[in-house]
């Protein structure tokens, strides 16, 4: 189990891409389907706690959604094996968004109105979180997810959406960390390639550039290249950046871009966001030694490494597995203390302070996102992850 590094309260019976030149978790996972209204009543009668898991189980980002779901289910199984939460068993229904925003809204409404879940394990995909945030305002069910775009949790006027929470560092924090890493390692000139249709990609851009500015490094407008889903000729997009001999690029859709860069003869490093974390290495299939990336977990921890080895054939994104695990464990910690009454549970989440597998999660009630949560910078030795340094948020 992960008990050595996870402190979860059982209670009285109960958690850019930058291209640079030079320079326990236990228990089996399963996917349940949305239960009919009658089963929610039955769950309450049977003393069970019903939660939802809203993920891309099919679709382009199903690897991420399935990884979160399997980690969340592992936590549910572990909690139940240890007596549940104050003697109550957790039941988790999984709802497939299919990577579609309309499907996501419909699934959310089913979960909170038909099934009457007490809490939803939310997605890691900002586009889906953005789709449900306005709808969630009309209900009393927290969504505890992983969307890194602060706009998924905070309104334009600066107040949080009441039910939207994220339990991993924001894109603001991640962009800052990646830029700090680049500057620390002596990179001076930068080109930026970003997906203007992807919320995570867009939300990394400003904090990355702003952090460079703190060291008097500016990025020329001609070196900032936007692309969208219709753009597939990455060689053409990359060519001006490669020809300019910039120290760094930032991107999404990393496999295709890494392939194009290699074919163009690019010899530099690529420093990326979470896109570069495993399983980028196995998806790309080639030598990944020129990749730097950010990650949530310390894969050199023996317990984490052992769990990754155990789940590697079933989970394509190990970091998302541990994040899903932490969401359920942290939520269980809150429920063990205050129960499932919405007001009490909401307040407990706003004031969450929880030591998880992915770090110390301390929620800022003004943003519904963690403060001071550290992350790790990695590279690869061919396809083997190598942890380089821990950065505080």
Secondary structure: elements and pairs:
Elements: H1 37-45, E1 49-55, H2 62-81, E2 90-96, H3 101-114, E3 120-121, H4 126-136, E4 143-145, E5 164-166, H5 171-184, E6 192-195, H6 199-213, E7 224-227, H7 234-243, H8 254-263, E8 270-272, H9 280-284, E9 291-295, H10 302-311, H11 318-338, H12 342-350, E10 353-356, E11 359-364, E12 369-370, E13 375-381, E14 384-391
Structure characterization notes:
The protein is α/β, with parallel strands linked by helices and 393 residues long. 38% of the residues lie in helices and 17% in strands. It has twelve helices and 14 strands. The strands form four sheets. A five-stranded parallel sheet has the order 2-1-3-4-5, sandwiched between helices. A four-stranded mixed sheet has the order 8-9-13-14. A three-stranded antiparallel sheet has the order 10-11-12, with helices on one face. Strand 13 (375-381) and strand 14 (384-391) form a beta hairpin. It is globular, with a radius of gyration of 21 Å. The two termini are 27 Å apart. Mean pLDDT is 86; it is low at 1-45.
Attribute tags:
disordered N terminus
Q: Uncertain spans, ≥5 residues at pLDDT below 50?
A: 1-45
Largest sheet: 5 strands, parallel
- The radius of gyration is 21 Å
Shape: globular
- What is the tally of helical segments? 12
Mean pLDDT, rounded to whole units? Answer: 86
N-to-C span: 27 Å
Instruction: Report the helical percentage.
Output: 25-40%
Strand order of the largest sheet: 2-1-3-4-5
- SSE arrangement, N to C: HEHEHEHEEHEHEHHEHEHHHEEEEE
Count of strand segments? 14
**Could you tell me the strand content as a percent range?**
15-25%
What structural category do the secondary elements indicate?
alpha/beta
